[in-house]
Amino acid sequence: MNDTSATRSVGTRSVGTRSAGTRHRAAIGSQAVAFTAIRGLSILTIAVLGLILGFILYKGLRYSNIDRSAYLPYAEDAPDGLVVAVNSGRAPGALDWGVLYGMFTDEYIDWAKIDGSDDDLTPIAIDPATPEGARAEAFLFGTEEAGGYPAWGGLVQTASTSAAALAAVAETPGAVAIVPEAAARGAPGVMTLPLRRLVLAVNPEVAEFVDDSYIEDLSGRDVMDLLSGRARNWKEFGGPDLAVAPVAPPEGSVLAAAVRSAGLEYPAGPGSPVPGGGLEYLAAIGGTSGAAGLAFAGDAAVAGLPAAMLTRRTSGWNLTIGYLLEAPRLSGRTGGISTIIANTFLMLLLTVAFAAPLGLAAAVYFVEYARQGPFVRALRLGTETLAGIPSIIFGLFGFLFFVNILGFGFGLLSGSLTLTLMILPTIIRTSEEALKSVPRAMREGSLALGATKLQTVARVVVPAAMPGILTGLILAVGRAVGETAALLFTMGSDYQLAKGLFSSARGLSAHVYLLFSEGISFDRAFSTAAVLVFVVLLFNFAAKRLIGRMNRSAAA
Amino acid sequence: MKRIVIATLALVAAAGAYAQYSGSYTFGGSTTVAPIAYAAIERFQKENPGLKISYEAVGSGGGLKALLAGQISLSGSSADFSADQLKGAVATPIALDGLSVIVNKKGTGIKNISMEDLARIYHGDVTNWKQLGGANAPIVVVNRDESSGTYAAFWELVCQKPFGKAIAYTKNAIVTKENGEVAVKVLATPGAIGYVGMAFAQEVIKAGGLELSIDKVMPTTANVVAKKYPISRYLYIVTKSQPVEGTVEKAFIDYILSPMGQAIVKSADYIPLPKK
Amino acid sequence: MRRRKILEGAVEATLFAAALLSVVTVVFITAFLFQRGSPLFEKVPVLEFLFSSRWEPTAENPGYGILSFILGSFLVTGLALLIAVPAGLAVGIYLAELSDGRSARFIRSAVELLAGIPSVVYGLFGIAVISAVSRTLFGGSGYGALSAAMILAIMTLPTIISVTEVSLRAIPRELKEGSLALGATHWQTITRVLVPAARSGILAGVILGMGRAIGETMAVLMVGGNAPIMPSGLNGMVRTLTMNIITDMSYATGDHLTSLFATGMVLFAFILVLNLVVQLALKKSISDLEGKSGE
Questions:
Q1: For residue B52, what are the β-bridge partners?
Q2: CATH second-level architecture of C51-294?
């Protein structure tokens, strides 16, 4: 036989030659090299695998992104003496100007994209015919003098006075109104949200298509450099070859006060303050080549000045308790994954309900009843073959057979039945092992006591093999939970809680894929992936514990 | 602005209860329409608590196929299907959408592109950004799969004039299954170019990608409505036959065409139908 | 007594039916794929289907050639094995022969864990990391055969590692002790005695991994590029058989749909052949071992 001849040749070579010692030393030397290489390669491989696992779990738990926004991080509590009033039940947090504007121009219908909550958005405006209403209108859309025009959205509701608006806000969870600060102070059931509205307005030329260049996103430091004159040319930021001309707001204006209280060091240097009112200031930015200056977002928009995009690195927890407990909305864009987790467990329960009895029955047949022969060999071959079939083929089959021919449609039932076929071989194989490991003496003892074969199997053999059977089942389910390809064609993708066997349902793995492919969020895809990996870990751990207990009881 | 007295707020909320629908329904189709569908379904269900609708985003082509096969009862579409393809099904326009051309900021070096150059890129005649005055880097073309209505619409709107009716995109392109995947791959790949529905472009810009202007016109709502921006199309809802009064499908279409539904369209970053 | 006998018979019949289910499923799957896929060959000759690379199923003059996808599948799988086999062998040998018990247990559970990670999660990792790594190291767009192969290598590694370890451990002690007693070094014993003796087991593991790799869908879909063209080199874009099915499945009708089932048939055929080889290799390794212990 080949292998024994190999042994022999090793022996003859190392013993029977003249310089056996030298050879042996050389062999020892090359062994050291080889072992180092093997160790190195192993450590490298394990390190790579460990890094992958670590990366997935870390990305799932923490996010760290570069946020882009036109707004400087400074928020005003009462811009221009007005406040943004919302129901006191809302989560506190500053609003961007653009969001506030969008609330009153039909950009939003609910709070989902704003703070992730479920409430409908009810924007309430005070009648613009009244002085307070006119003030809010000018605040939001700019004065007529500046070139603004009211663009109220169709969903906006009107209140006659600020008191009526505040009363409505106090009553309606998702309401928002812009009212004078004095009126809102002390109003019951109402809280106010601070507003971010400072942007870096630039001369349109800077952002225009000059030589096909564009300003890269600016950091907070870049803004300071631009305003203080430390940065001389827009080229430094990837922009056109234009000198930077910082412009400062007029002394004593609301803007100047806001800039001061934001703690932004406005330079005394090259950009001397523009005298006169706000309109002249904006005109100066619009009329000076390479100009840049801080402005309120609304004013800049009305004046047609582009705002530079600012970047900020943000990081925080990606996977939170809330993410696990909330229902997803808009295909997972907002909300959490509670229904997805529930769907996953429903799917697994159904799969186990089908696969466990079938798998166990088949295993019992193979171990206790089958007589060896070509027919049983064929059955075994079938099981082995089934184990090797790729999931996409199961998907095709499930789609054809369960979804179309049996007419179950996309849903839990079709998905679970497809999964059942996929994990059946694993369950059969592990159950067989477990049954075979039950000592013969137990069977014989039972039979000797007069029990029938069926009684022996049902009352003695299967219970004795139970831990092993369960372990196999858990391992199989651990694999099933990650299946995606076969389920996309059979189980559907509805992110709501499944309401029945024929209800389309999205599981964790499909959710991971769809969060990625629908371009919703990489962070959310990773946090869902982390949950999925945790579930797999849990199953593995449970199986390990069972095996451990089995070994202990076997030893005892 | 609607002049509704605040006291009627509660009544407005209750007014949704005029006709209640219940049961389980499966809709599906275009991935471009999906964001509108998800939002509209969530709200429609809120008004009809006994109702459960799912939307399977399988592409316009996949949706039509499933609709005709009876697997779903309503399908979203971003393709302007011919009568031949519809086989008696009825398409109702629900929104307008501009197609945004997005690029990675690295390895492209352009901010504007002409329609002709765009067509040449997707036909495979231009393969390096240098040929268009950009960076000296290969163009990584990101395309959709054939099930996509956006795939068909883009050819029709951009490439048909120079290259004829039969779709003949360059095959040397990354094929993606959803709008979002285009966005992800363009954002991750230097030198990449792709096209997506306007709604998805906002996400791309937020994540640091660049939206190109076409012949110096930016894809804004105003430009699409004014027909200045050349690449825009209607989005549709397709039903197997003329929608019948009293069915969930008809009620759902009416809902999307209602002021609330059109606000949903806008909140999903698409363009409401122009008022007649 | 008679009732009991009937019961016993009924139970046995039920158990038998359950045991039959796997075979029935395999037969069903085969039959369905064949029934849905074979009508294509009335219109497109089998040879054209297999050996043409013109895949234009929705063109006016449709082309249904899947050669690029067959080659794509093999390219990706081959590359993956090129990475995974040496690494897997090294770790397997390390675990079986060089490591102490504690570190082996640790590594083994880590490897088991990685085997359980769903392919869609690997795909996500591929998009986030592998495609960028591949782009930086080897150029190209980052979506192509090389990226797909790297992901597949990671996914097949656990199989190859554990099969290698198990095969090495299954070799009778006398063989190793004999070799050492004859003066061979440990390394010589490993390369000339143990690995050759475990050869067929290891081979079965590699083929098993190959089957997994050929059948894998989600991870390669996410990083492969999916262009329906002949792979143009190691980092050229690639579409495998599985990707072809999942890409078009949702909307294909008529001959196009039939061609997808035919693609499934080809994939299935490859898998069946690999499975048979594994069965044979395993049988050989078992009989080898039995023969040896009998010596």
A1: B24
A2: Orthogonal Bundle (1.10)
Q: Would you say A410 and B26 are in contact if contact means Cβ atoms under 8 Å apart?
A: yes
Residue B198 near residue B269 (C-beta atoms within 8 A): yes
Q: Where are the domains of chain B?
A: 2-96+233-267, 98-232
**Domain limits, chain C:** 2-42, 51-294
Kindly identify which residue of chain A lies nearest to residue B43, measuring between CA atoms.
A120
pTM summary value: 0.88
Contact A518 B43 (CB under 8 A): no
Q: Do C218 and A386 touch (CB under 8 A)?
A: no
Element (H, E) at C74: helix C67-93
8 Å CB contact of B55 and A494:
yes
> Degrees (nearest 5) of the Cα angle A216, A219, A220?
145
> Does C204 lie at the interface with A, CB-CB under 8 angstroms?
no
The CATH fold of domain B2-96+233-267: D-Maltodextrin-Binding Protein; domain 2 (3.40.190)
Put simply, whether A66 touches C (Cβ < 8 Å) is: no
The torsion of the CA quartet C173, C178, C184, C190, rounded to 10 degrees, works out to: -30
B17 to chain A, any CB pair closer than 8 A? The answer is no
User: Would an 8 Å CB–CB cutoff place A454 in contact with chain C?
Assistant: yes
* Option in A1, A50, A393 nearest C268 (CB): A393
- Whether A365 and C216 lie within 8 Å, measured CB to CB: no
How would you write the pLDDT of chain A (556 residues) with one tens digit per residue?
344 444 444 444 444 455 667 777 777 788 888 888 888 888 888 888 888 889 999 999 998 887 778 888 888 888 888 999 999 888 888 999 999 999 998 888 888 888 878 788 999 999 999 999 999 998 898 888 777 888 888 889 999 999 999 999 999 999 999 999 988 888 899 999 999 999 988 888 887 654 445 666 788 788 888 887 788 888 888 777 888 888 888 877 888 888 888 777 665 554 555 555 577 888 888 888 888 888 898 888 888 888 888 887 888 888 999 899 999 988 888 889 999 999 999 999 999 999 999 999 999 999 988 888 888 888 888 888 888 899 999 999 999 899 989 989 889 999 999 999 999 999 999 999 999 999 989 889 998 998 888 888 888 999 999 988 998 899 899 889 999 999 988 998 899 999 889 999 999 999 999 999 888 888 899 999 999 999 998 988 888 888 877 777 766 5
Point out the residue among C88, C119, C182 whose CB comes nearest to the CB of A15: C182
Residues of C in contact with A366 (CB under 8 A): 19
Chain C residues touching residue A509 (CB < 8 angstroms): 118, 120-121
* Contacts B188 to C, Cβ<8 Å: 127, 131-132, 142
Rg (CA), chain C: 23
Locate tokens 């809680």: which residue?
A497
> B98-232 domain in CATH 3.40.190.10?
yes
Question: Across the interface, do C113 and A537 touch by the CB < 8 Å criterion?
Answer: yes
Which of A316, A336, A371 is a domain's end point?
A316
Do the Cβ atoms of C83 and C149 come closer than 8 Å? yes
> Using an 8 Å Cβ cutoff, are A478 and A539 in contact?
yes
Q: Do A183 and A242 share a domain, yes or no?
A: no
Compute the distance between CA of residue B93 and CA of residue C256 in angstroms, rounded to an integer: 29
- Among B99, B121, B103, smallest CA distance to B212 is for B103
The distance of B230 to chain A (nearest Cα, Å) reads 19
Contact status of A340 with chain C (Cβ, < 8 Å): no
Structure tokens at A78: 């009462």
Q: Do A388 and C245 touch (CB under 8 A)?
A: no
Query: How deeply is C78 buried, as exposed, middle or buried, from its count of CB atoms within 10 A (0-12, 13-18, 19+)?
Result: middle
Q: Is A490 on the interface with B (CB under 8 A)?
A: no
Q: Are strands B90-103 and B210-211 parallel, antiparallel or unpaired?
A: antiparallel
Subunits in contact with chain B (3 or more CB pairs closer than 8 Å): A, C
